[in-house]
Specification:
The structure holds two protein chains of two kinds. Chain A has nine helices and ten strands. By secondary structure, chain A is α/β, with parallel strands linked by helices. Chain A has a six-stranded mixed sheet, with helices on both faces. Chain A is globular, with a radius of gyration of 18 Å. Chain B has a single domain (2-216), classed as MetI-like fold, CATH 1.10.3720. Helix content of chain B is 78%, strand content 0%. Chain B contains ten helices and no strands. Classes of the chains: A alpha/beta, B mainly alpha. The interface between A and B is medium-sized, with 28 and 21 residues. Chain A: GO terms for molecular function: ABC-type amino acid transporter activity; ATP binding; ATP hydrolysis activity.
Chain lengths: 242, 222
Amino acid sequence: MIEFTDVHKWFGSLHVLNDISLTVTKGEVVVVCGRSGSGKSTLIRCINGLEPFQKGRLVVDGFDLGSSSVRLRELRMEVGFVFQSFNLYPHKTALENVTIAPIHVRGLSKAEAEVRGRALLEKVGLGDRMQNYPHQLSGGQQQRVAIARSLCMQPKIMLFDEPTSALDPEMINEVLEVMVSLAREGMTMMVVTHEMGFARKVADRVIFMDRGAIVETADPETFFTAAKSERTRDFLSKVLHH
Amino acid sequence: MLGSLNTRVMLEYLPAIWQGFLSTLMLSAAGFAGALALGIVACALSIQPLRWLRLSATAYVDAIRATPLLAQLYFLYFGLPRLGVVLPEALIGVVALSLNSGAYVAEIIRSGILAISRGQVEAAISSGMTYLQRMRLIILPQALRPTISPLIGQAIVLVKDSSLLSLISVVELTRAGQMIAIDRFMPVEGLVATALAYLLLYYLLKLVAGAWSHQNRLPGPA
């Protein structure tokens, strides 16, 4: 579904992605962790073409992102993206936020999109908030709307870029629960997060990145108990003890 | 001084002042309509990817902002006939007002668009929207709302700037006031009558502005 082969990316002289090779298969849940600046956000932003890369090959759902003729718009319809800062449209209600892309990009009728949108907002526990504007919702509620917004396009892949980092602690769980249920339904997911509990619970694989490179890839059990790299163990000792 | 105003003469000239008032209203409305159209186009050019189009928008805005309106007005008034383009004075005046105000409108709208966070654009891109869909559905509705108040400010400036059209013999409010001064040698009466009419125009604009921004206020409790 997602296949990185020897991908490199530079910001000026900064080597932000260093020789990334990684394959994510359909239905897999991959958690990416690492210090800030390690390139983990850049990694998933490459997958829907928000960031270009300079060298290597990246194929997502059959779309070759390195080729100049890649139809990015069609790819993006199949790839949902959830941001750290939610990025809901402030001038639209929760329901409008969720239905706007299905109507204008997928070409659904308003009625069809609303049926789909209502069901998804119900599913993320916001059935009573459909007519609210983003500023009337808490952070956790906004992020759940954002997840519903991505799901309403019926994507094949969901990408999460630190979805709980901007949330107050008491709201983190309501968002993680939605993500856990999504993972259990078989969605292909890549999640950049420091929520190691989430990784333990649903990840098929955990990846640790440092200075633009993938340092460690392992199933959660091995990752948390028997990481091979010193840098991974050092990182884990810091994030697991608070 | 105001106590000694000759109100009888002012009333006698009321029809002329009224004509001037209507004329200024229409010249300003036409000028501002043109300014909005020009401003939107110039702003669109200044944020699109083609470099030479961006540069032409910048050149327009800079040329207008760097030179006085009076010079621009005379440039059109004396320059156009030399190119063989003969237009009525009133039309030249409207074109000058539009060209002048359009540059400021472009900057006002641009500042609104640039204030939209990158995250909004990325969210729209990630959902597969085209450039035009992003602009129409996400960027412009958010960008235009905070520009309403500065745009009204620009309209108020334009109304007052339209007084310069009296210099190319367009009959409008200032010109009408000058007639009292010239016919009756009563410059103060003329100026006061004119000023009162401009004040009325100003309050009319404020009324429209109030209704407009009420309609466009952010949804939900303010």
